Amino acid sequence: MRRALLVLLFLSLIAAGLGVWWWMETRFPVRSASQAPQTLVVEPGQGALEIGASLQALGLVRHPQVFRLHVLSRGDAGRLRTGEYSLEGEMSLDQIADKLVRGDVVRRAITFPEGRDIEEMAQIAAGQGLDAAAFREAAKDVSLIRDLDPEAKDLEGYLFPDTYDLTRRPDAAAVLVKRMVQRFRDAMRAEMGAVSASGFDLRDIVTLASVVEEETARPDERPRIAAVFRNRLKKGMPLQTDPTVIYAMRRAGRYHGNIRRTDLEIDSPYNTYRYPGLPPGPIASPGLASLQAALHPADTQDLYFVSRNDGSHYFSRTLAEHARAVDHYQRRRGAPPPGDRGPSGR
């Protein structure tokens, strides 16, 4: 009997020791507050043991099996979320597991300004660690807008410029592109009635808005510039706008930051000096203000505008008035005489 009691006491001491050890391993902070933040990346398909191995490599657990047994005991083995985690401050294994179950991943903000095309957006995405090629490929998924624009060859114009948060995951570019298209849909939902009443389809409105976006950064001018282009379309006049030529040059790999008179002859359907009407599709992603300007242009008969060289424009109804404005704002400032270069006169 005494021997049995001794064995029981011995086993109890072992169990108590294991209990204390387990409590120390899982609930006592493993890392100190003075340590630099460490990054843990949980990839899709990784199990608790593999994650435990990553934690061991970071010095946050002595053995991968400890982490595996811990999450199994919590019933969380199948609830650990993928992504990039920043582990900082005093953290116990229990707190680390909590973080992975919540999916408290690192989020990075990425901002796409108005007036950027797909290639420019791909470079912005690359600057935040995304694969530019993956972004370009995702931007070809026209199934995302087929109901809105059956003619679309890519998502140019439909990736809404805004600030988005990024998380590390293999399909991050595709997820981002889908969110950008959804943001476009959300922004345009209240304007779909105006699209129907405009006499244009949505593709034309987005195309016109993208040209407006590229022509001015001034919110007060956008409705008036939209009116100029719509007035020219009504009269069958070519739009003759430089941003469409620049876009054509970019597509041809010929744009290096400057546009010359000879560039206005580039043979591209996007060249609105050579081809009448709107270009075949958007040349950039317009913001909401430009989309609204395309739908609700100013009530004016203007057919021309010229840069005042301060970010604003002078608008004219007649070619004679426009020529005088070009002479005043462009030729007299020492620039080579541009002649009549369409509505902008640049």
Task: Give descriptors for this structure.
elongated; two-stranded antiparallel sheet; Dna Ligase, domain 1; mainly alpha; 346 residues; 3 domains
Overview in brief:
The chain is mainly alpha-helical and 346 residues long.
Query: What structural category characterises the helix and strand content?
Result: mainly alpha
Q: Return the string of H and E elements.
A: HEHHEHEHHEHHHHHHEEH
- Give average pLDDT, whole number: 86
DSSP helical segment count: 13
- Low-pLDDT stretches: 15-23, 334-341
Radius of gyration: 30 Å
Report on the structure:
The protein is mostly helical and 346 residues long. The chain has three domains: 24-102, Dna Ligase, domain 1, CATH 3.30.1490.480; 108-188, no CATH class; 200-333, no CATH class. The protein is 45% helix and 8% strand. The protein has a two-stranded antiparallel ribbon. The N and C termini lie far apart (106 Å). Residues 15-23 and 334-341 have low confidence and may be disordered.
